[in-house]
């Protein structure tokens, strides 16, 4: 058993003059204040990778920069699943007794510190080096292929995908830290620039600068602890060309494993934080996990099912699609919002219930999955 005892989330968007280490530090400052701790209280450090600071030993580089002397330090690289994988490892460390308080941090100046061409080139390496990368595919192209297959299999439409973008923008409008807060409509999404058919500009998350951090503790200390009850991972084929299925990637099995570990059923979940790098990502994950029937996520979004006062509040900070995506810390913002929701501190965004929360992230092209179950103390 472990507890999130502090969380810190910066504004996402453009932070000119702020490096990866600066943004990580900003988030850690906030997390330590939230936990009521100081640097000397931390004995473990886990961080994610940074494409703008690709150091082989980023965890100890940050420890030096921030003035930490951890008993344990580790850096992880698992694509979009990294943020939740960091928390899972911290959970295992404090549960085993290897550390008492583990600082988990991610941050990156991906928007201001990297050219568009460089970002595209780095992310394209997710593809198979022999069978995919030489063909020139990008991350949106892979997801576009998956979206086309999903539409064929389950009868959903481009407008259904667009509903997910509208939903996330509506939620982001209530968060001062969101990169994009102006309302959008389904028509706006449909009219936005084509990126990789059937995905358009507003079906895709933005590139951002930002940082996020947590303190994972062995005890329910501080003013706002929430319990991490269980965590699980599932890894299928890394590359799209090797995938057995383009509609079942392992998210359902991963979430089920985490829920079983927590002794909970899916019907008991009151709040969901689900990875949303593209509208198809959010659609597929919701439906594969079982939070929506196949082909119906867009309809449920339109009907208010995922609103703060709906049956299943979802990504109430605006998700990657509108709060922003700065690499590893992108998905970590989902957990920061969950922490606020579960401790009743989300203000105008507050859900009616969030006592049992399910979080899920994926890395690559839906190839690596991490699920967390969190419960109110």
Question: What features would you describe in this structure?
Answer:
The protein is of the alpha/beta class. The protein has a domain at 2-114 and 210-217: Thiolase/Chalcone synthase (Peroxisomal Thiolase, Chain A, domain 1, 3-Layer(aba) Sandwich). The protein contains twelve helices and eleven strands. A nine-stranded mixed beta sheet has the order 3-2-4-7-1-8-11-10-9, sandwiched between helices. Helix 6 packs across helix 9. The longest helix is centred in the first third of the chain and has 16 residues, at 20-35. The mean pLDDT is 96.
Strand order of the largest sheet: 3-2-4-7-1-8-11-10-9
CATH class wording of the domain at 2-114 and 210-217: Alpha Beta
Low-confidence stretches: none
The CATH superfamily of the domain at 2-114 and 210-217 bears the name: Thiolase/Chalcone synthase
How many helices in DSSP terms? 12
| CATH topology group of the domain at 2-114 and 210-217 | Peroxisomal Thiolase, Chain A, domain 1
The shape, in one word, is: globular
Q: Secondary-structure element sequence?
A: EHEHEHEHHHHEEEEHEHHHHEE
Amount of helix: 25-40%
Task: Compute the CA-based radius of gyration.
Answer: 19 Å
- How many individual β-strands? 11
Question: Which CATH architecture of the domain at 2-114 and 210-217?
Answer: 3-Layer(aba) Sandwich
Largest sheet: 9 strands, mixed
Alpha carbon gap, first and last residue: 12 Å
What's the average pLDDT?
96
């Amino acid at each position: 058993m472990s507890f999130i005892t502090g969380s810190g989330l910066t504004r996402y968007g453009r932070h000119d003059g702020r490096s990866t280490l600066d943004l990580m530090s900003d988030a850690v400052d906030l997390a330590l204040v939230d936990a009521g701790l100081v640097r000397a209280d931390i004995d473990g450090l886990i961080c994610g990778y940074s494409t703008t600071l690709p150091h082989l030993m980023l965890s100890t580089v940050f420890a030096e920069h921030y003035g930490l002397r951890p008993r344990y330090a580790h850096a992880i690289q698992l694509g979009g699943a990294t943020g939740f994988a960091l928390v899972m490892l911290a959970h295992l460390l404090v549960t085993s007794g290897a550390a008492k308080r583990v600082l988990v941090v991610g941050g990156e100046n991906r928007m201001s510190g990297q050219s568009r061409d460089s970002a595209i080139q780095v992310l394209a390496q997710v593809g198979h080096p022999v069978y995919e990368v030489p063909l020139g595919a990008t991350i949106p192209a892979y997801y576009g292929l998956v979206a086309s297959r999903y539409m064929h299999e389950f009868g959903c439409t481009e407008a259904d995908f667009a509903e997910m973008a509208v939903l996330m923008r509506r939620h982001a409008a209530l968060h001062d830290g969101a990169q994009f807060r102006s309302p959008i409509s389904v028509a706006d999404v449909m009219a936005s620039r084509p990126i990789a058919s059937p995905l358009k500009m507003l079906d895709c998350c933005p590139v951002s600068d930002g940082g996020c951090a947590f303190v994972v503790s062995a005890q329910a200390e501080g003013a706002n602890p929430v319990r991490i009850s269980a965590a699980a991972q599932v890894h299928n084929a890394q590359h799209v060309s090797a995938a057995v299925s383009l509609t079942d990637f392992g998210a359902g099995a991963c979430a089920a494993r985490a829920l079983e570990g927590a002794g909970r059923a899916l019907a008991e979940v009151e709040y969901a934080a689900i990875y949303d790098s593209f509208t198809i990502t959010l659609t597929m994950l919701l439906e594969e996990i079982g939070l929506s029937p196949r082909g119906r996520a867009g309809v449920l979004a339109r009907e208010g099912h995922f609103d703060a006062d709906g049956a299943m509040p979802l990504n109430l900070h605006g998700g990657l699609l509108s709060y922003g995506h700065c690499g590893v810390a992108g998905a970590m913002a989902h957990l920061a919002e969950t922490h606020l929701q579960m401790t009743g501190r989300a203000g105008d965004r507050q859900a009616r219930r969030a006592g049992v929360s399910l979080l899920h992230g994926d890395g690559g092209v839906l190839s690596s999955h991490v699920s967390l179950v969190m419960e109110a103390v």
